[in-house]
Specification:
The complex is a heterodimer of chains A (308) and B (345). Chain A is mostly helical and 308 residues long. Chain A is built from 13 helices and no strands. In chain A, 71% of the residues lie in helices and 0% in strands. Chain B starts with a helix and ends in a 14-residue tail after the last helix.
Chain lengths: 308, 345
């Protein structure tokens, strides 16, 4: 017998995990190319704002999603120009991107507080989407959930099965070697950073048009940072990032269900769970120094200039 | 160029700010005046500037040590919160006691509170090699939730009509005002002391030297026998302690009780202050005053021109971008290169 809470719980885990999947997979690609972009939170929140603003003004969900991705990409472009062409410190630039993104989205989003957006239509195949359990979970999601799974498959294939993916990994492992045989380290990295930005923007878009279809200041609430932790947790592998995101989605929604089950703990303590879990997971992963050194891109966080 | 770059960044930020205001259909000249000039055209305003600069300067000096050693403590906001809670808890525990020892006790509690919160990333970094950027930041969210729990629960004022606020602190738990008629309090002097102490440690003490060597040449540092773990601990303790003290100063100075929002992001802004001040205590003092002005300007623009005070964050982010971009000029020189092939004579 299937308990009646099972399906709604899994459905909420999926909506909580999807933004993390987008952001973490995008960041994994950027980090594979050797660029540590700590601005995921800023790119996500700008993506969330842009998607919501365009969605509300135009009424079109497709335009909203595209706007989210484009806004994340533009933010990543700022980061890319600064770190790759002006050789600024990646850690500091990423922090600046986050502060700037949170401020700019709050400023522009001022007029959108209190509005709502209709959300995304869900897949509905007559007959199949009604199958108990399997139907709603596998055949009743919105377009972005399927896109997030496709993105994981696609990125995994790209990184490990294609020549271009190998180049991305090559500039991340040893930028001097890649440069010496004639590849443009800067351009490959810029591409990876922009992809990461667009994906973070999509994650933000999912937050503001599906997860909570309204605009609130700082609505990402640290999810960009959790996505960064997930990349470490996943040892820079897209599939592990995907499962990590679902694990965190599960932890996030515990707080919603614990109160329903009558557990008497102040809500603040339950809200701490995702952050504490991130710390615990990071500790477990990074304990083994050699393993981290083997799986982390060797040039992660190091700037490259052709002059040496 | 090391010192010209921040000034160039400020000029560029103001210029882009004017473009931004123009795009938002706001008169740029008037907005810039409201933002950067009007708030400090009175004695009261200048006092207010120092009130806001105090926590920024303190935290930024503390963080500079870590940033020089490549220890990225970005959780100062959480350390500030825990420092405020530790000292505020002491003030509430001795609510009815009027003793001159309460304020010093609160200062110690604040410093220890901030240090405790920073000790977690320090321990995890040195023992398990865990990335301190992510742990210190995650702990910030945890600290803010602890604060929220306390003001909504056990520490709520029993006579406070159910508002999520603690009792107002007693006279003995409040920092004395040092400029009659304004809110400028003793904390401002503490920040100046921190500038002096920070400069001495950084420029004249072996600890400052070790921190700089570890940051610039880790190999040389390990050949010289400098212990990396010790420096990680030291820089996180200095940063956490300074942030905790800033938290104590906030609640016992301008605020005077524990409220759900203690700091408008001072812990994050201090990161920008540290960079803008070139990780140098005296620089942090100047940069802290400038950043304090963006807070005052944001508030003023909200009152006078009905602009959301999130403009502050935009200015702060832009300033750091331009600063990082201008820093390229420290190591590289712009030259006009003619692409034409010289003709044969």
């Amino acid at each position: 017998m299937i308990p009646e809470w099972l399906v709604p719980t899994i459905l909420t885990i999926i909506t909580a995990a999807t933004p993390l999947v987008f952001a973490a997979v995008g960041e994994a690609v950027a980090e594979k190319s050797g660029v540590l972009n700590l601005g995921v939170e800023g790119m996500m929140v700008i993506g969330a704002f842009a998607a919501f603003a365009v969605g509300v003004s135009s009424g079109s969900a497709i335009l909203a999603i595209l706007a989210g991705a484009a806004a994340g990409l533009l933010m990543a472009l700022i980061f890319g120009v600064l770190t790759l062409y002006l050789m600024s410190n990646q850690v500091a630039t990423g922090l600046a991107l986050t502060i700037f993104g949170l401020g700019l989205s709050a400023l522009l989003g001022y007029g959108f507080v209190g509005k709502t957006f209709g959300g995304l239509p869900k897949l509905d195949i007559p007959g199949i989407s009604e199958i108990p359990v399997i139907g709603p979970i596998f055949f009743g999601q919105d377009f972005l959930v399927y896109l997030s799974v496709a993105a994981v498959i696609g990125v995994n294939w790209f990184l490990f099965k294609t020549r271009s993916g190998m180049l991305v990994r090559a500039v991340g492992e040893n930028h001097e070697a890649a440069h010496s045989i004639g590849y443009s380290v800067t351009l490959i990295r810029l591409g990876a950073v922009l992809f990461g930005g667009a994906m973070a923007g999509l994650g933000g878009a999912y937050l503001s048009i599906v997860y909570t279809p309204l605009w609130v200041e700082n609505m990402t609430a640290g999810r960009g940072w959790i996505a960064l932790a997930l990349v470490v947790f996943a040892s820079w592998r897209p599939w592990r990032a995907f499962f990590g995101a679902y694990l965190f989605g599960g932890i996030t929604i515990i707080q919603l269900h614990a109160q329903g089950l009558g557990i008497d703990i102040a809500s603040q303590f339950l809200s701490m769970l995702p952050y504490l879990a991130t710390i615990v997971v990071l500790v477990l992963i990074s304990r083994d120094t050699t393993k981290v050194q083997l799986s982390a891109p060797a040039c992660l966080g190091k700037n490259f200039h052709a002059s040496g | 160029m090391l010192y010209w770059s921040p000034m160039l960044a400020v000029v560029l930020t103001i210029l882009s700010g004017m473009v931004m205001f123009a795009l938002l259909d706001v008169n740029p000249a008037k907005a810039i005046h409201t933002f950067f000039v009007a708030p400090v055209s009175s004695l009261d305003g200048i006092a207010e500037l120092f009130v806001k600069a105090t926590p920024l300067v303190l935290i930024a000096i503390g963080l500079s040590f870590g940033f020089q050693a490549n220890v990225w403590n970005i959780g100062a906001e959480g350390q500030l919160t825990i420092g405020a809670l530790a000292s505020g808890g002491l003030a509430l525990a001795f609510y009815d006691v009027d003793t001159p020892f309460l304020l010093p006790g609160m200062m110690i509690a604040g410093v220890l509170g901030g240090m405790t919160w920073a000790a977690i990333p320090a321990f995890l970094k040195t023992r398990f090699n865990t990335n301190e950027i992510l742990t210190s930041l995650m702990l910030t969210y945890v600290a803010l939730l602890v604060l929220s729990y306390l003001v909504h629960g056990p520490w709520k004022d029993p006579e406070g009509m159910n508002f999520p606020e603690s009792r107002l602190f007693h006279e003995a738990a409040q920092l004395p005002v040092i400029l009659e008629g304004t809110r400028l309090h003793l904390g401002g002097l503490l920040a100046l002391l921190a500038v002096a102490a920070g400069w001495v440690v950084m420029a004249r003490h072996i600890i400052g030297f070790q921190i700089k060597v570890i940051g610039m040449a880790p190999m040389a540092a390990s050949f010289a026998g400098f212990k990396k773990a010790r420096i990680v601990w030291l820089s996180l303790m200095i940063g956490g302690g300074a942030a905790g003290l800033a938290g104590m100063i906030e609640i016992s100075g301008p605020i005077g009780q524990i409220i759900p929002v203690i700091s408008p992001g001072y812990g994050f802004t201090a990161i920008i202050v540290a960079f803008l001040g070139r990780l140098n205590p005296v620089g942090c003092l100047l940069a802290g005053c400038l950043m304090a002005l963006t807070y005052l300007g944001g508030d003023n623009a909200q009152i006078e021109m009905n602009l959301p005070n999130a403009v502050t964050g935009v200015f702060q982010g832009m300033l750091l971008f331009f600063l990082l971009a201008c820093d390229v000029l420290i190591r590289y020189r712009l030259r006009v290169v003619s692409k034409k092939v010289p003709e044969a004579a």
